[in-house]
Amino acid sequence: MGTLGVALALLAAGLVLGLFLGRRRGALTTAPEVPMEALFSAEAEESLRKRDAIFAKVFNLVPDTLTITRIADGRYIEVNHNWEALSGFMREEAIGHTSAELDIWAIPEQRSQLIGILQREGEVRDFDVTFKHKQGHQFYTKVSASTFESDGEKYMMLAVKDITAQRAAEQAIRDINQQLEERVQRRTLKLEQANAELAQALETLHRAQDELVRSEKMAALGALVAGVAHELNTPIGNSLTVATTLEHRLQEFEGQIKVGLRRSDLDHCMADAQFATEVLVRNLMRAGDLVRSFKQVAVDRASSQRRQFNLQDIVSEIVITLSPVISRSGCEVQMDIASGLELDSYPGPLGQVLDNLINNAMTHAFVDGQRGRIEVHAHDLNADEVQIEVRDNGVGIPADHLKRVFDPFFTTRLGQGGSGLGLHIVHNIVTEVLGGHVDVSSQPGAGTVFTLRVPLRAPASAQPA
Predict the structure, then answer these.
(1) Which domain holds residue 75?
(2) Nearest-CA neighbor of 305 among 244, 337, 349?
(3) Is the sign of the CA dihedral 43, 44, 47, 49 positive or negative?
(4) What is the pTM of this model?
(5) Whose CA is closest to 378, among 365, 363, 366, 391?
(6) Which CATH number goes with the domain that contains 463?
(7) What pLDDT digit, counting tens, does each position of 30-70 carry?
(8) At what angle do helices 263-303 and 164-259 cross, to 10 degrees?
(9) How far is CA 302 from CA 34, 91, 352, in A?
């Protein structure tokens, strides 16, 4: 109820009460505009009745419930028609009875609090009061109140607004909010549990990926060992053959000495010994060079240390280590590496990249025993970068696979030895260790080209894999 409405309602109530009390106590002087000489005349009585009827009508037209009670004992002096619908009590049941007799205040302390505020401040606006209906149930209201005094008695006028439906709606909203909060908490808990499970699964996946990466590295080292054995087998085998032949020739020479040595026999023996020595030295030097190369590759792969190196040497060493696999595959590997390309970078990781790309070509580019060609090209792009290409003339990569080749665990040879990590490792090494970029282009039936762009000097922030 607005301030103006409350004021009007209380004014109407006050006027009605003033006339009512004045008539009961003979204090008819409270009615304005009635001449003193006509107070006891019939006209005065009629005028008062009409005035009472007007103010009673106004009192009952106010939309809120209005009551007038005596402060001392809570006795009801007047109520309007809305009182009956709100409280369940008829007007005749209320007038002359106290609020305690009607048991209308559900919380009696609220009446004492209300009166205390009225005594301090003179009026009250929107005070929360819980009343009890005649049938026993409670209803909630907002009360505005004022006091007045007549013949030494203090009275309280109340304008009561029913907010039970509003309270019920607010409670319903609170209940819904509580339910929503509980649902959100349950969902949050489930999400936290799901996130924890996902984090654990991701950690397990990372461990598995690391293990597979180590397996890939061990497989590369295995290929290195096989390459060492294969490449060393030729010079060592040749040296053994020459040494055995030289041993037999010396035994013959010894027999010739016993029966009589001729000048021609000595010359032939010296020529054979010189030839054998040359072959032995050449093959042993070849073996020594291979051992040094393999040792450097092994150190680079194991330690991933940064150093200065010649790109042509690194590519040659990688092709040598892969020669057994290349021979079995029936493929041909050609190199076209510009001379003078000196890098300050990580030869081990770069060698692993080239190893993986050549192996990937031999594994996927050629099918059904097809013989193919793999080419490794390298040249400088500018003063700071070098471009390395590994290309093949194989079957190519389908367009729907092309954008996924660097994804971890993506392979078209699942269960046939493919882990799906080779190209993923290539991408990680090139971008994170060498500080470069790797791209792939392919046309089905026209082969595949992997293009690496790496700086001649690896960035200082790069860390070996």
Answers:
(1) 3-162
(2) 349
(3) negative
(4) 0.44
(5) 391
(6) 3.30.565.10
(7) 334 445 454 446 666 776 677 667 666 767 777 788 999 99
(8) 170
(9) 120, 103, 11
